[in-house]
Amino acid sequence: MATFSQLPRELQQNILDHLVVDKKSLTRHDCQNLLAPMRVNSCWFNHTADILWNKVSNLETTFSNMGFEQDRRQFYVSKIRTLNLHTARIYFDLIEGLNFESLTHLMLRGDHMGILPFLQPNLKTIIFRASFALTKNELHQMAILCPNLHELKIIPANVDNHRALTPKPNPDPIDPCTFGSFFQHCRHLRSLDIGSKLPSPLVSAALLGLRPLAAAQLEELILTSIEPAALPDDIHEILEVCTSLRKFEIRSNYYTGDPFYMTLLLRGLATIPGLEHLRLDHGVVEDDVEEFTKRHNAPFGNLQSLALKGDMASISSFLSLSMQSLTRLQLVVDDHAHHICPTIGRLQNLTYLNLVIGINHRNSYWEGVRYHPQAHDWQATLDDMQALSTLSRLRSVNIRPININLTAPWLTDDYFFTWTSSFPHLRDLELDIECPVSFTAIVALSKTHALLRKCKLLWIQEIDNWDDLPAPEFLNLQQLTLNFVANIPQDELRSHIYRRFFKSPRPSGSISMTPMQLSLGSEHPYRRPGQDSDEPRVVTLGVKTVDSY
């Protein structure tokens, strides 16, 4: 019989590739399993070390404790492809002279004291997560030493990290002119995420620097928590030359900029025929939509994913465009007239719907905020639900309120069963609507949608007798969240829940057969009119799958 070393190299590689399921996301169990094959022979050792050192997040701790000689440190460092670290804690004397020759992904999560040791020709992704304090020389060296840079994220934030060293003073800080020149040399840049705590002049310089060389191949542009002053006056002209752009986002929960800039943004974006993903966290207004629809006959014709915030009229006008390619839709909408659902119902190819409906008091959106006073109750209508039931391709449905209580007192068990049956491919369901649907309807849901992965039904369940209730029969449930009135003493509650969801006999493959983590908490869901504060408290039941290792 041939030994392993005598097998064809292709067969050796095929066998070795089965050591773990995912080399880029090792579990603790994976790491333990790799210790044994490391001791087989040099071939297995090299391959296993290649897997174990593919992604490193604790280089600081590892090198300070290993005590390896220089050549051994170089052996392991040469295998690192993804490096996530707090560079303020790096012992630079331990990495001096080492060559990170295989490094393709670098994330700096802390206040850094220099990045030159990590800059390599193979580096394709650099992420500045906590701070951005490069010198002009370091930025210049990045342009020279990283000619294949494809993805750059500069999204610094203030981090309270008592372990981090105080960063040394920057003797030669970057100015806007140098920053803009850097982007002119990034000829292979495909993705740019910039903003947050970065000064507005640098953000503006980066956007100006995209034109004309980098813009032609840029595929993703994400602006995170930027000030309106950071957008150049000719931002629409810059976007117009981004002919390869597939994804554009303005991310912020607090963006309240000048609507004039939103008009310019939409005017430029509407000219990009290949745009597939669009997210605008600043609420659009109807005049913005009218502006770019007058200039273009069929804007956003290839859009597949859309995330918008605004009032019902402007969003309805936007959705009325010919966007039958749209499969993912996320909306935060003011909809006093309840007209948005029929508009959504026309998008027959949707597979994902996340609808947050309510009131925007401050021109900023805090998703998930609920109000108790009955004056803020909005009632979902039968027409709303019926309009959404036409979206038979939906795999994920999420409907919840913002700054209101969304109610549906007319919603019965039978209608809930009929409505959910309209989505045969459903895998994720989250409804935060106060209604009288009972636990029996949830059991029925488990039979028609046995493969549901996520089920969050946040109305208040009235459960009187745990032992007499039928068991749900979900086969692949990974997350279950319910609100219910606890009519039994708190110290007995956990044992009752375990008996309810983990009792025998258990259907094969059901939720009861999966390793689970159960949590109980007191939430603040809608409190029915007239309910006294001393009535049984509402408890939130959360059940999640957990890693068995």
TrEMBL record:
<dbReference type="GO" id="GO:0031146">
    <property type="term" value="P:SCF-dependent proteasomal ubiquitin-dependent protein catabolic process"/>
</dbReference>
<dbReference type="GO" id="GO:0019005">
    <property type="term" value="C:SCF ubiquitin ligase complex"/>
</dbReference>
<protein>
    <recommendedName>
        <fullName>F-box domain-containing protein</fullName>
    </recommendedName>
</protein>
<dbReference type="InterPro" id="IPR032675">
    <property type="entry name" value="LRR_dom_sf"/>
</dbReference>
